[in-house]
Amino acid sequence: MAVQQAAGADPYFPEHGDPRYRVHRYELALDYRPAPNRLSGTARINAIAGRAPLSEFVLNLAGYKIGRVRVDGRQPHYTHRGGRLRVRPAKPVRAGAPFTVEVHWSGNPEPVDSPWGGLGWEELEDGALVASQPIGAPSWYPCNDRPADKASYQLSVTTPSAYAVVAGGRLLTRTTKASTTTWVYEQSAPTSSYLVGLAIGKYQTVLLGDPGPDGVPQHGHIPARLLGDFSRDFARQPQMMEVFQELFGPYPFDEYAVVVTEEELDVPVEAQGLSLFGANHVDGARGSERLVAHELAHQWFGNSVSIADWRHIWLNEGFAKYAEWLWSERSGGRTAQQLAAAAHRVLSALPQDLRLSDPGRKSMFDDRLYERGGLVLHAVRCALGDIAFFRMLRGWGQQHRGGTVTTAAFVSHVARFATEPVDELLHAWIHGTTLPPLPGAAGRAAG
């Protein structure tokens, strides 16, 4: 497992995350009451200081009331302003030394503001969900909110017993006492803070397909009224899982869950081991199947293989976009070449001022980034040929499983599978703004 740490603050969100330390594990115990939208929580955070002594450090947390903070059992000095919990331990933490932080907080959770609207904890008509990409995690728990700081998680959530709690990871226990139920999930794989997913609602749970003794358990959590349409729309997800494991390597987590909320969502949202869809993505006609493929592909590209900072987001979205095209090709739909040609036509008519390698904060979710990112993968496929391309793709996922990557790392990785130089090709697609010509037809065999 290759875990790398970004050297400094994220250039797009310098107020989020603290590179002076890294977190090894979060243990979160939450109590949520939907009717008053009231959340109280305790976090136990096991962390390791960086190369310099740690006289202070920062956790990101929205405007809750802080009940208590402890560092290694001792009361520190702390301030909490502007979504930043600044902690000064009673005694500085030695360079490279482990330390433990405990935080108690409570309040009414709400999304945090961002250029894309509210992010993070969202109160629904009857329940709640978390959609944190890229900076919404502090809306519900204290964290070192940077994608490169990946940790394991244990998440305990207590709610009224009428509600189900779904989180990424393995359900360890479900315990009912009086009128409440406590759900405990474990996510042992390294997880970025924004990828900790959670849904609280009144759901029916179904098993998707038969995983067999060595397969990946896949569950759907759906409002009862949508079960019929869901069973058609997600019927091919088990087949998708088989295809993606063939193309990308073994599924990187223990299980995979999808949640469909009662309400509409602008777009589905991936979390680690979990994807969230709106009721508008279920129509009984597989009208959103490309999005089902997109979110599943993120489990490899974005979740297991994560970006070192947000400049590299095309490595998440371009790979997931190309996975849509690969699924279409493998399931009898349009080929990747046909879909690449369609994307190229669309991009040709749009402004050509987007640089994939550093799109800027305002453009990091621009549709052009997704489509051009997919075209990069198709251009590489055309240059390498199918056998080398799919070896490259599987190697990328397996070599960086649980770790973080950069655009430069991807360029170096591709070069190892090329028989001829690919520097100019990749530079034009990734670092240039002008749209290069449409890549030529790729071979059919997905070796």
Automatic annotation (TrEMBL):
Q: Show where the Aminopeptidase N-like N-terminal domain sits.
A: 132-195
Q: What is its EC number?
A: 3.4.11.2
Q: Which reaction does it catalyse?
A: Release of an N-terminal amino acid, Xaa-|-Yaa- from a peptide, amide or arylamide. Xaa is preferably Ala, but may be most amino acids including Pro (slow action). When a terminal hydrophobic residue is followed by a prolyl residue, the two may be released as an intact Xaa-Pro dipeptide
Q: Where is the Peptidase M1 membrane alanine aminopeptidase domain?
A: 238-429
- Taxonomically, the superkingdom here is Bacteria
**Alphabetized Pfam families for the sequence:** Peptidase_M1, Peptidase_M1_N
Please list the GO biological process terms of this entry: proteolysis
What cofactor does this chain's UniProt record say it requires?
A: Zn(2+)
Instruction: Tell me where the signal peptide lies.
Output: none
| InterPro entries assigned to the protein according to its UniProt record, in alphabetical order | Aminopeptidase_N-like_N, Aminopeptidase_N-like_N_sf, Peptidase_M1, Peptidase_M1_aminopeptidases, Peptidase_M1_dom, Peptidase_M4/M1_CTD_sf
What does the UniProt keyword field contain? Hydrolase, Metal-binding, Metalloprotease, Protease, Zinc
Q: Which GO terms describe its molecular function?
A: alanyl aminopeptidase activity; metallopeptidase activity; zinc ion binding
Q: Is Protease a UniProt keyword of this protein?
A: yes
According to its UniProt record, which protein family does this protein belong to? Belongs to the peptidase M1 family.
Put simply, this protein is called Aminopeptidase N
Tell me the organism.
Answer: Streptomyces qaidamensis
